[in-house]
User: What shape does this take?
Amino acid sequence: MIRFKQVLVSFFMVAGFSLVAQEAPKEKESGHTNQSSFKQLYEEFSTPNTYRSASGAPGHEYYQQQADYVMNVVLDDQNHRLYGEETITYTNNSPDDLEYLWVQLDQNVRAKDSKARLKNGEGIPAFETPGGFAGKYITEPFDGGFVIDHVKDAAGNALPYTINFTMMRIDIPKPLKSKEQLSFSIKWNYNIPDHTVDRARSGYEEFTDGNRGYVIAQFFPRMAVYNDVEGWQNHQFWGNGEFALTFGDYEVNITVPADHVLDATGTLQNRKEVFSKEMLSRYEKAKKSYDKPVIIVSQAEAEAAGKGFSKKKKTWKFKAKNVRDYAFASSRKFIWDMQAVKVGAKDVMAVSLYPPEGNPLWEEYSTKAVAHTLLSYSSHTFDYPYPKAISVHAKNQGMEYPMICWNYGRPNEDGSYSDRVKYGMISVIIHEVGHNFFPMIVNSDERQWGWMDEGLDTFMQYLAEQEFGEKFPKAIAPYPKYPSRRGDPAKIVPYMAGDQSTIAPIMSNPENVFQLGPNAYGKPATALNILRETVMGRELFDHAFKTYSKRWMFKHPTPEDFFRTMEDASAVDLDWYWRGWFYTTDYVDIGVKDIEKYYVSNRPTKKMRDYLASRNITEADMPPMVYLDNEKSDGFDASLKGKKPTESSKSLQAFLMDNFDAAERAKLKEPKYFYKVTFDKPGGIPMPIIVSYTYADGSSKDITYPAEIWRKNNKEISVVVASQEELTGIVIDPKAETADIDLTNNTWPRKEVPSEFDKVKQSVKGK
Ligand SMILES: [Zn+2]
Assistant: This one.
């Protein structure tokens, strides 16, 4: 008898007995492959190897190339043309022999016959900037491509080369062997574009007084990346997919009109030659000023300089170590201020350059935002390793380079400005200075993966903005917290709930996505924010994120290196999360579908008794069990209502009597109410179910079911709620943490909830 009962119990356990199992068998369906949302990403991920380990860390044979540059650059301010000659020393640290070298000629995207002008097939856009329209239909195409004067080897012999659009292949006489080094030089020049007309990432802005502010980048032929992932990363520059670049040391001499003020990537080598005595003494003060910026060139001085036009030249000499790129800004109209920031044990200079057109906003906030960014980002990653960070004001720009970036935020002519301009300016400075961390130091391939720098940086930007608000409450008054544009889960809802034909997975090339902003910035930033706050928790997330940052500091990570490290350092299986948020265009939508009341019973339900009978098993054959019966089920015994479980179940009573003494039993709490709560999931992304239950006595209880609750059924699951009090309400995701796109199904009893989209519509109407 005992044996038989044990067999019975194990039969029910193994079979996962449920009432569903009793239904008449359907016609046989065909089989299927593993479609689980929780399936590991083996098929999507590349196989780990000795260069990149399965842990997400650099492998024991990890290597990267080195490209060192010595450059002489001359700015012709009169004709806005840039001339340069560079010597690149390229070190082949790879195990491979290289038959040729690929060099990037980014300015060719702006060549007269550039294919980039013909790449879009969407017909007539709804609107265009006047400059964009004129450039397409009225004026001659701007002639902004590189003129290559020569490519020579170290002995001065011409090297043959082939230019394919934005890439130049240099054919070397014999392969560059593994561990060997090669020097060659390139002489070039190009027409600098007006970046306010051409929407270029670099160029000049002409002020009303005829002076120009130059923000110069992608200005020299740059080595393409060669690595274990892509071989040569020589995917063309079409305009959206940014840059893949090799680390190296730079020695750069920049000759500009003598009345220009200039700053650039790297440490200035001849300060005494290019600074006035006054500037030198102010600079010495700034190096010791940790609480506020010191003016190096004042507004009055910048305005006075703007009235002249020096025919004399000055050469500014810089050296930069271990940077992946180089950029500079130059104008006779720049105001200049800076202060010191203690980052770890080191002093870093936070610097701003801006024309008078930027004031009063820039003087007040730019350097403050730079200093704050360095501290905030360092606390979440690693101590900022470079000696300075410069924010340059350039109209409509938001663009990043090592130690220097261009930022928008222009007040009206009378100096007034809206909140939109002010917070836009502070935010873009945090963002672009923040790019020093991703991708300038954690050097991901922007050409292929826009989100790896933009998404991580926008996530970090959100943290830095919120910390800025906490640190400077007066600067953000009357707002209670910094009004971040991206990062809060609810803000990504209109995008994720949008038309699927205009959404691409995050894991897409930037050239191939429909809406680059939400795709590469907003959604990954939000996904990481939710991962930190809701899925992993701050402690596990922050440690893992820091581990990734430190592992890949001054190296070239891939998406898998990030995904793997976040798991490796936290012991949280995140394949489902990466799959849902990064590899699909699925969205989050979880609802409460149904609630049923159950009562404890001594007997199996009628349905189960019938099933037992069909197998010749009597009730008496069953081992001691506690049964729960639904008041709606056939043959329900209404007398069970209102009884305590121990009153209704002899076997439960016996168990408690056998295992607890009277004093222990007195402390036990017996739930009186049993509910089967069914949650459904119209959205494709499995997420934790964050539920707030409220009870008749006014109390409430919050339970977060892990995302893994969806592992066997990705559409609908049910949980049991046992309570002393009657359940009166259920709210899913009460704090809007998950970017749930439809809130109408988040409550029981149902109530009318305006959708996020409606809320957005309302707020837009209000403005
Ligand atoms: Zn960015």
Notes: Residues 431, 435, 454, 457 surround zinc ion (CB under 6 Å). The CA atoms of residues 598 and 629 lie 5 Å apart.
